Amino acid sequence: MKRLIKNGTIVTAADVYHADVLIEDGKIAAIGEHVSPHDAEIIDAKGCYVFPGGIDPHTHLDMPFGGTVTKDDFQSGTIAAAFGGTTTVIDFCLTNKGEPLAKAIETWHNKAKGKAVIDYGFHLMISEINDDVLSELPKVIEEEGITSFKVFMAYKNVFQADDGTLYRTLSAAKQLGALVMVHAENGDVIDYLTKQALAEGHTEPVYHALTRPPELEGEATGRACQLTQLADSQLYVVHVSCAQAVEKIAEARNKGLNVWGETCPQYLVLDQSYLEKPNFEGAKYVWSPPLREKWHQEVLWNALKNGQLQTLGSDQCSFDFKGQKELGRDDFTKIPNGGPIIEDRLSILFSEGVKKGRITLNQFVDITSTRIAKLFGLFPKKGTIAVGSDADLVIFDPNVERVISAETHHMAVDYNPFEGMKVAGEPISVLSRGEFVVRDKVFVGKPGYGQYLKREKYGKYAVLNENEKLTI
């Protein structure tokens, strides 16, 4: 079926212009001012922006953690993502030591199959490096199209890998054309500080932050950057939350290293004081890295503006307050880490970023879609509005205002960390490969419509431009 989006303002990472977009067979077939096929359904986008569909590079759907499982699976999670203007997610496939990587990948395929309403891909966790793992990696890339590997530097005795594993993963990724992602916190010191806090009787949620100080995120980020330089490889630092980590990423990029940084909406608008809410309400804001003191927010905004950080993920990892977060009522270390963020990622960045003059419209698109597509082997299929690209499109009203609330969100979880926050701008309709998933703010998609994406190797479009080498 042909569809023609008329009267909208097209926004890409490079341009802002008025034009119509013709969609045919799931692709963008034509862009112009006088495109008028007689047999196309007309979609009026007057007064709205037309963005490329958002790409969320950081989600945890249907993920086991801390004796429970995230509340949002690939159905509810991708529905919520679509309402928020996201048309592609890349989820983290967890692995188990001593088991074939293929077994973990099959498990994640089964989690998504028949449920996802938008397209999706996987990152692969690397918890150990040995001959068996190294022998599987080429197949993972060539057959599964998984071209990004995640290494945890925290969660001691759970997910944490040692520096040798990280270095060998970086070395393998260099040879294979993959991008290495790190959760950068010093897990060994966090483990010590956590045990010390509990021994002193500190069990409240705020101690989750106090035992994971920003210095430990900065240290781990710097260490990962140095290992990347030694391996002559490429690194993507997930969920950057503080000035100390931004500084290390900026230093590495100024040296010309292929180091990239992602932050998340929660770190841009929430702060450590939320963890101090009474009656255990602070548990709603327990995730890792933790929320920081408020002054870090402007550092993160400036880093997005200046290109020291390049992307915005959600780190979607939702647990109910009742029954799940409450597992840690008497011990902050037992509070499941994570929050429901996937639905409000674009709205918060637009409202707090574009509307308040912190970033431009083009930067908004680059940060939420285009740069992610380039880094993770999806461009130009995804991440832009161009002839031949997938018709993943968001019709976005920049003038409507709404209040974020658990009463109106589409996630399965029982609270929203941004409860009561007023935002300007909202996705009205969202199309994935030319088909409506959300139309006039009503879900019209189908579970199982989302396709698995085999991604290209790192490097074709992910380049460090000269003008991105900025002094700090």
Structure notes:
With 472 residues, the chain is of the alpha/beta class. The protein is built from twelve helices and 21 strands. It has helices at residues 74-83, 101-112, 131-144, 163-176, 187-199, 206-210, 214-231, 243-254, 265-269, 296-306, 345-354, 361-375; strands at 3-6, 9-11, 16-18, 20-24, 27-32, 41-44, 49-52, 54-59, 64-65, 68-69, 86-93, 119-125, 148-152, 179-183, 234-237, 258-263, 311-312, 393-403, 422-432, 435-439, 442-443. Strand 13, helix 4 and strand 14 (179-183) form a beta-alpha-beta unit. Helix 4 crosses helix 7 (214-231) and helix 7 packs parallel to helix 8 (243-254).
Shape: globular
The separation of the N and C termini measures: 51 Å
Mean pLDDT: 96
Order of neighbouring strands in the sheet with most strands: 8-11-12-13-14-15-16-17
Share of helical residues: 25-40%
Largest sheet: 8 strands, parallel
pLDDT below 50 for ≥5 consecutive residues: which ranges? 466-472
Structural category is: alpha/beta
